[in-house]
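Pilot study result, target chain (582 residues):
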Amino acid sequence: MTLTCTGIGIGVTSSIAIGEAYHLQCGQAEARRRTIAPEDVEHETARYQQAVLGARQDLNAVRDQIPKATPTDIYAFIDTHLLMLEDAALVEAPIETIQSQRCNAEWALQLRRNELVKIFDAMEDPYLRTRKDDVDHVVGQIQKHLLGQQGSSTAIEEDLKGKIILAQDLTPADTILMRNQGVAAFVTEFGGPMSHTAILARSLGIPAVIGVHRVTQYLKHGELLIMDAEQGVVLANPDERTLEHYRNKSGDEQAHIASLRALVNEPATSVDGIDITLKANIELPEDIEATNDVGALGVGLYRTEFLYMNRAQPPNEEEHLASYKRIVEGLNGIPITIRTLDLGADKEMDSCCHEIQPASNPALGLRAIRLCLKEPTLFRPQLRAILRVSAYGPVRIMIPMLSSLQELHAVKSIIEELKQELKDEGHSFNPDIPVGGMIEVPAAALAADSFAKHLDFLSIGTNDLIQYTLAVDRVDDEVNYLYDPLHPSILKLIQLVIQAGHKADKAVSMCGEMAGNPLYIPLLLGMGLRKFSMQPGVLLEAKRIIRASDIGSLTKQVANLMSHLDEEDIVQRVKQLSSVMH
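Predicted structure:
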C-alpha cells in the first residue's frame, strides 16, 4: 500500500526522486548559561576565538571539495559564511559579552545570535528575512566546536548515494557535501521558496520538497520513498504499480529537460508569430553565467541589496560601479535593469540610519525609495554608479515601491542633478538612460496610467503586490494559504497596469514569481503581457510554453475569464487555458 506523507510541502524543482529515506540529525546545538570566574575570562575568550578559527577551517575544507565545474554562485554561499566569520558581529561581540557578563562562550554566542535573528525577523522583505538562516548556520558551526562536535553533520561521512535526505533544515555546507555524495533528493521540515535549501536545490539541480512539517517524525529511516517535487508531496512505501508510474514519469522528465536545452538559441515566438521577451532576475554577479546559459535576452531585475549586507558601512560609489561593471560586461551587450536599494530602516544598516527609529510595521514604514529619498548619502552614490556604468552597456534604472508621483518626481530631479555633476566631472554616461518603476503597491497599480506618463517603462512586482493587496505575509505559515495570485483583485490590478502601459505606449514587464510560473504564463499572455523576467532556471520552460501558444486564441479566452472573475473556479479555468496551445 502507498502512504502519502502527512503534510504537503513546497516543491522547488519539477523533479522526481526515488530512494531510501535517510534521517539527518543536524539540529542547532543547545547552549546553557554558565557563570565563569574572573580569572577564567581570558581562557574563555581564547576558547571562543579557537572555535571561530575551527569553523572557518571547516568551511574552507568544504569549499575545497566543490567540483571545479560547479556554477560560481554555489561558492557564494560558503564565501558568505566565511565573511561572516570575519565580521565583528560574530567575532568581537560575543567576546565583549564574555568579558562584561562573565559567562561561558556558548551562552555569549547564543545571546548574539538572538539579537541578530531579531533584526532579520523584523525585515519586511521575504527574501532578506530568510537570510537569518545565514546567522543560524554560522552560529551552529561555531557552537559545534565549542561543544566538541566540530565538523559537519556526522552523517556526511556515511554513504548517502541515492538516498532521500530527511532533515529539519540543511546548511549550505552540508548540502554541497551531500550533493557531492550523490544524494537523490532533500525533504526538510523548514524553509520557504527563498531559503538556502531551495536556492541551492535549484542551483545544483537536486530535487527537493521543503516546509513539510514533522516529516522527520512521520517517515522512517530506511523506508522507500517517492518524492514528487512538482506536486510537493512525498510517498512512503509505494506499491509496485505506483513505483512503475513514477519511474516512467521520471524518464519522461529527463527527455523533457533535454528538449528544453534545445531551445536555448530559439526565439520565444508564439504559434501566431508574436515575439515575447524573456529576461532573467539576478542577485549576484555570479548569476551572469546562468543568465547567459539559458539564452536570456537581458536582465529584467538586478537586486542590489547584497551589496549592503553583512558590512558595517554602506558601499561607496566605486564599489557599486565595480560590481555593476562586472555584470554589464559579463552580459556581452544584452540589457540590464538595475533596481535601486530596496531595504528598510528596520534592517541592519546602522552606519547610515542612526537617527531612524525601527518601524512598528516595517512593511508599511520607511523602506525602499522612501528610505533612499530620506537618506541621500545612501541613494546618490548608487545612482551615480548606475549612471556611470551606463557607458559600458545598455542599462536601465528601476525604482522600487513607488506609491506617489511626488516620489517619482523627486527621484527624477536627483537623477538630472547627478547627470550634471557627472558631466562637469568628465564622466561618461548615457544621458537618455531609461527610468522605470516597480508597480508593487496597490495604489501605484490603480494609478498606473499616471505613472506611465512619467516613466519609460513599468515592471509589475507581483510578490509584494499580492502581499499588500491581500494583507498576507507569504512566508508566514499561519496565513500563507491566503496568498493567491489568482485572486480577482490581483488579476484586475495586473490588467490595469498592462492596459495603462499599452495606452501610453510604454513597455510593461513582470518580474515577480508569477512571471515564471508555467500555470500563469498563458493567462498573462492572454492579458497582453509581452515581457517577462524570471529566475534563469525556469526560463526555458517558459519559452516552451510560449512557442506552443496561440496568443490570439488565449486573448479571447482570457477576455472571457476576466469578465467572470466572481466565479469560484478561476484556478480550473486558468489551467484550461493551456488547451488552446497549438
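One observation from the pilot: The chain has three domains: 3-25+156-257, 38-146, 262-580. A full batch analysis is planned for the follow-on phase.
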